[in-house]
Amino acid sequence: MDTELLPFSQYLESFKETLKSVFYQRDNIEQFIQKRGFPALVLRDIMAKNPLSVGIPKEYGGRGVIMRECLAMLDAASYESLPLSLTFGINIALFLEPVGKYGSEEARKSIFNRFMTQQNMGGLMITEPDFGSDALSMQTYCEQDGTNYHVKGTKHWQGLTGMADYWLITSRKKLDNGDLARDIDFFVCDVQQSQQRIIVEEYYNNLGLFPIPYGKNKIDVIIPQSYKLIPESSGLNLMMDLLHRSRYQFPGMGMGFIRRMLDEAIAHCKSRMVSGKPLIQLDQVQHQINKIQSAFTVCSAMCARSAAYAGVEKNLSPDAIEANSMKAYVTDLMQMAAQVLTQLKGANGYKAESVSARGIIDSRPFRIFEGSNDMLYTQIFEMVSKLMVRQKNMNLLSFLKGFKLTQQVAERFDSLVDFVITPKMPQRKSVDMGKILSRIVSANHVFMMETKGFRQDLVANCIENLKHEVAMLVSSYQFTSAIQPVEDYKESSSWFHC
Ligand SMILES: Cc1cc2nc3c(=O)[nH]c(=O)nc-3n(C[C@H](O)[C@H](O)[C@H](O)COP(=O)(O)OP(=O)(O)OC[C@H]3O[C@@H](n4cnc5c(N)ncnc54)[C@H](O)[C@@H]3O)c2cc1C
């Protein structure tokens, strides 16, 4: 507990030392990474540093939920281990922050005390077997009985299944006629209480993120009213504030991960000799490393923006365009960085224990969970096109020049985006447009970071890369295609008879 009193920069350095010690001296991350769960001693030493204290308010003994500090912890962890960073992300963004903001005094006092003194953990349950992307149709329900609530249903794919001490469970109120209400209620379930045990029906064989258990959870629990979160307006509003703040924190998990990919790529390509020359002298290799470096700069800019903007005091429910842009784009960048590094490392990159191969597998689901990227890109475009219609301005460049999230950089993309768009178009086009918008919103973050002193050569390279990406996406957007998959394709389609 003593380290919590240190100034944050000192605390962070000492936390990084602990990570180095547990991952490379006390244990060997390359060996344990393919086994399920963190080795007990590794987790014990990490948690002894109380890393989750950054997500706990000062009045309960924590470091005060300062967004910059939360992001810095995620960043430090993901340089060494993406699963560890995701474990922190789950606890901080999906549990501690919403409990701190919307929990009753009674619940907060007891929960934060157990996090600070017993290294407890908490996760979030939204997804159900039949309702994932369509989460608002969830069937888990709650019924009030005096001062308690009965919550019943089935959830699956929860990070920390069978391991967390607390769960934030989402449900819909059962109405008198048996229907379920539209709004969502949140309950904190304490699995240490006899009436609040959650039965894990099955553990899943997840492809990566081995230290984190996933599975199917049967919920049939009685929860006191004081453990129901109290929304400011509706539960849906609470949910959007929670999910958006979490999406604003994805760059924290991306940051250390992408920096690691970059460091490994530069180190490898400087030392690997091919045809008598270091790989890094090849133009295509430089191009590939530039892509990772540009991802590093974009992700840094997102972190700087989130640190300044996305604090718990703010209601982020209206900030869907920015939150979705960050989540979708940074997770695409994480996957790209791991793929590029694996290629640059050649055959050795394909060893299961290599940091790049692990990186591909571990970062892959980030594009699926907390809103699949295709859905988020579609939503970005839909929201922007509504604004354009309202302003009666369908010229993209002209709109971006006046839009608060893009106005600083719109001109740099002038010739690329100077065209008129139609609000109604096939979804594949909306996805292209969502991607274009997310890249330009990110360029704006990069520009803003430069004004605060970030080095200019990285910014210039990054903006150039973003323009290249936008040019390719605009070309895809303008290519007219409505081809449909041929579902019944078996007849006359064998090469053998041709
Ligand atoms: C590693 C991992 C960790 C997770 N952690 C948690 C957790 O801690 N808590 C929790 O509650 N859940 C968690 N999930 C569940 C996750 O949030 C869901 O898997 C996700 O929301 C997608 O739901 P689904 O799997 O039912 O897919 P579906 O809803 O069936 O969607 C499948 C695919 O269809 C496409 N699709 C769906 N809707 C659209 C759309 N509108 N536009 C375009 N394409 C679309 C997308 O490609 C999508 O990936 C986790 C999942 C994974 C893999």
UniProtKB/TrEMBL annotation:
Its cofactor is FAD. The keyword DNA-binding does not apply. Gene3D superfamilies: Acyl-CoA dehydrogenase/oxidase, N-terminal domain, Butyryl-CoA Dehydrogenase, subunit A, domain 2, Butyryl-CoA Dehydrogenase, subunit A, domain 3. Transmembrane segments: none annotated. InterPro entries: Acyl-CoA_Oxase/DH_mid-dom, Acyl-CoA_Oxase/DH_mid-dom_sf, AcylCo_DH-like_C, AcylCo_DH/oxidase_C, AcylCoA_DH/ox_N, AcylCoA_DH/ox_N_sf, AcylCoA_DH/oxidase_NM_dom_sf. Residues 29-116 form the Acyl-CoA dehydrogenase/oxidase N-terminal domain. Keywords: FAD, Flavoprotein, Oxidoreductase. Residues 234-381 form the Acyl-CoA dehydrogenase/oxidase C-terminal domain. CDD domains: ACAD. One of its GO terms (cellular component) is plasma membrane. One of its GO terms (molecular function) is flavin adenine dinucleotide binding. Belongs to the acyl-CoA dehydrogenase family. This is Acyl-CoA dehydrogenase.
